[in-house]
Amino acid sequence: MSRRTLATAGLIVLLGLLVQARPGEPPQRPPPRPVAASIPAGSSWTTYHHDNGHTGYDAAAPALGAITTTPGWTETALDGQVYAEPLAYAGVVYATTLNNTVYALRQTDGTVLWRKNLGTPVSSGWQCGNVSPQGILGTGVLDTVANRIYVATILNSNKNYYLFGLDLGNSGNVVLQTDITTAVPGFDWTIEQERGALSLNNGYVYVPFGGRAGDCGSYHGYVVGVPTSGSTSLLFYQTPSSGSGIWAAGGLVVDDAATNNVFAATGNAVSNGCGSVDQNDAVVRLGPTTLAMQDYFMPQDWQNDWCGNDQDLGSAGPLRISPNLLFQAGKWGGGFLLDPTALGGVDGQLFPTPKPASYSQAEVCFGNHSDATFGSFAYAAPYVYLECEGRGIVALHLDTSANNPRYQDGYEDGFYGADNWQIDRIDRQSGAPSRLLQRRRRALRLQRDHRRSALPQRRLRDQPVRDAGGGERPGLRPLPHRHQVVQLRHSAEPERQPGASLHP
Pick from 357, 250, 246, 331: which is nearest to 296 by CA? Predict the structure, then answer.
C-alpha cells in the first residue's frame, strides 16, 4: 500500500493506553476505516503518555459529558507507516513516519501545515529485524520552551543514529542534529535499534536503545543523554550483560518533580547472561547528569522465570505513580510496586510480599506467564491500566491509603493467583459482557492498608460500537467516570511480534 492513512483522534476509550503498531509481520486484515471524532481544541500532549511519569492521564481535559461532539477529520495521506505516538500542542498534531518525515497537522481538520523529511531511512543491512524502512520508530518529544520537536532516527547515508531538533515555528527547520552512535563505544547499528519513546528533562533528551527482533549478536541496552544545547558531550548508560535491551515502546520515565532521575526497564539477557545479577530483567535508576546506575530492582525469580524463559520484565516501560511509587509488570505476568527512591535490588519490591516474606507473584494478566503484557501502562487514581495479550485491557485497583502495601492470600471460584489485585477486564474478542466478571470469579485487590477494606469494583465491558460504515463491531465502552483519552489511530493493524525486541 503506497498511501497510509492516519485517522486522528478519535475513540475516547481508556486512559492513555494508546494502541500502537507492532513491528513484525504484515497486517493480515485491511486497514480499519478512518473514524471521525471530536478533538478538544488546544489539547496538549507533548510527550509519550502525556507526562514524564507516563501516566497517560490529563487531569485538565474536560469531562466526557462536557465535550460537544463535532465532526472530526478522517484522513490525511502520509508518506509511511506511523509507529510513534502522535503528539499535540497549541492546536497542532505532530506525527512521524518510517520514511523519516515529521508532519505538522492542524488539529481541527488535518491540514498539513508543514512536513520535513530528515533523510533517506535505512532499508537493509541489519543482522536481524522486522521493520523496513527503518525511519522514526520511537515517539519523539515536544519542547514547549524551545519550541521544538525532538526525534531520533537512523540515516541511510552513514548508518548513524541522530537526534534531530526541529523548529515548530519555522516550518520544521532543523536546528539541532547530534550524532548519537559515534559517542557510544562499540555501538553496532546492525544489532541495536531505537524503539522506545524519548524523554526530555534537565537540558537533555534521553534516548533508549535495545536489540532487534531475533535477538541477533551481543547487543546491549543503552540510554543516551543528548544535550539540547547542541553540545556533543553525550551521556550514556550500557547494561552490563549481553541482551538486557531497553526496547519497549513506553521508553523511559523521569522523576521531574524531585530528583530528575531517569528510570528504565530492561529485558532478559542473552547467551550466558542469565547466570549473574547484571541489571537484566530489571528496573534501573540512573543519575540525570551522568546516567550512572544508582540503584536497581529485579524480581526474586528473575533467573528461572523471567530471564530463563525469555519473558522480559522490560516488555513495557515503567509507570511513575508518584515520587514514592512506581509500577512495573512484564511478559511473565507479574506486577510490582516499587519505591523509586530505594529500588531494593533483587526481591526489593514494596509489593507483593516484601522481604523478609517468602515471594509470591502478584498476577496482573489472569495467570498468563507467556508474553502477558507489552508497551506501557496508565494511571488515574485509583486504577492502573494495562493491556493483557488476548484478554483486552485490565484495571488494577490500588489503595494507597497507608505506607506499606499489603494483600490478603486466598482463592475464589477457582481463578488462579495471589489475592492482591482487583482486576477489571475488557475483552475485545467478544461484544458480550465478561462472564468472568459476572460470576465475580476472583477479586484480586492490592491493599496498602492494615485491614481488608471494601473497595468499589468497576466492571468494564465490551459494547458494540458503530464503525464508519454504520455496522456494529465489538468495541470498548467509555469508562463510567470522568477520565478521558483521545486515541490516535493509524492505518496499519497492530502487528504481531515473533521475537522479544520490538513490541510496543
Answer: 246
DSSP at 253: E
R_g over Cα of the chain: 21
Of 34-43, 141-150, 157-166, 304-313, the poorest mean pLDDT is in 34-43
The pLDDT tens digits of the residues spanning 163-203 come to 999 999 999 999 999 999 998 999 999 999 999 999 999 99
CB atoms within 10 A of CB 258: 11
**At 449, which amino acid appears?**
D
Question: 155: which DSSP letter?
Answer: B
Long-range own/partner contacts, residues 110-116 (CB < 8 A, 24 or more apart): 110/8, 110/73, 110/74, 110/75, 110/76, 112/76, 114/171, 114/172, 115/172, 116/166, 116/171, 116/172, 116/173, 116/174
Cα 168 to the center of its chain, rounded Å = 25
Chain position carrying cell 550512572:
292
Q: For 79-135, what is the HEC assignment?
A: CCCCCCCCEEECCEEEEECCCCEEEEEECCCCCEEEEEECCCEECCCCCCCCCCCEC
Distances, alpha carbon 167 to alpha carbons 31, 147, 234, in Å? 32, 6, 22
Element counts in the chain: helices (H) and strands (E): 1, 30
Residues paired with residue 6 on neighbouring β-strands, in sequence order: 490
Mean pLDDT of 272-280: 86
- pLDDT digit string, tens, across residues 366-420: 899 999 999 999 998 888 999 999 988 888 888 776 555 433 222 222 222 223 3
Distance CA 92, CA 214 (A): 37
